[in-house]
Each structure stands twice: as C-alpha cells, then as structure tokens.
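Any chance you could type out a protein's amino acid sequence plus the matching backbone structure tokens because I've never seen that pairing?

——
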Amino acid sequence: MKRTINVLMIVTGLFLLYSNQTQAQDLKIGVGLVFGTGVFEFDDLDNDLGLRFEGLYTINEEFRATADFTYFFPKSEGDVDVSLIGININGNYIFYSEDELMAYGLAGINIGIVTVDTPQQTVPGFGTFGGSDSESEFGLNLGAGIEYALDFANLFSELKFGGLGGDADQLVFAAGVRFAL
C-alpha cells in the first residue's frame, strides 16, 4: 500500500509541476461532497459520505485531465471501524459547451484503500489479535458530469461508476465547486 501511495504522490506532483508551467486559466482546484454506494458488505456500512479535493487541467477545448482524492468518513459496526480513501485520475471529454453550461464524459483509473481497525485482545497461550489492516485495489472509472460557470467559480456535478473490475466497485455521486488559479 505504501508503494501505491508513493507512486500516486509522484504522479500527482508531476501533474501539478507541469500544470504550474501553463497558463493560469488552464488549472482549477476544487472541493466537494461525495456519496458512494456499495463498497462494504456490512449492511450498516453500505453507503458513504465523503469529501473530495481535486486538481483539473484543461488540455484543449475538448479534453481535460483531473486528479482527485476522496476521503470517506469512517464508519463503525460493533468494535470494527472501517475507512475508505479513493484516489482517481480521469480524462474528461467535453461533448457540450455553450454559454455557462458544459457537459462531459469521464474515464480513468481508481485506487481504493480500505482500512479496518479492530480492538486488540490478548488471549493467554495464543497471543494478541486485532489491530489495523488495510488493502488497496485498482479499478476503472466511467461516468459523466456537468459544470456551470458562475462569476467566482464553477459548480460541478458528476455521476460515475468507480472501481470497475475490482471488489470495491461503487456508484459515486459528487457535487462541488471549482476555482480557477
């Protein structure tokens, strides 16, 4: 998992370094709320609310690249605490753009990192059990979004299938605001 996070940090750093050398209107940062379904198999942990932080780079009039980090709020069932982090790198194809409204399709890759924490218990003669364990998984993203330009920023909304091809696949709805740098 540490190797996955290190690789992602390097890719994101290179993306931001390259983006800083371009014109300011080509780079946006955003923040939003995310609602995801179906990641966990526990009944009480099925739906998740989270925060999303993103960077968006406009390549040309038709294509954009995005990198985002989503932190889903931890959930508990009994003594078990579960948390999920999603890291996504997507391409956008803008198929409609008129006045302030834009619509786009998106496709890319997803890395999901699930962490499960259980209380430690010592059983005489057998040792200590419990603690923290995490697992990461790769998948694909496929979806669509809309963006509406305001005077100070752009409002956006996206619906995508995330983590396709893996065990942590989910339907994700995101909404938020993007600011030009």
Q: What stands out?
A: The mean pLDDT is 82.
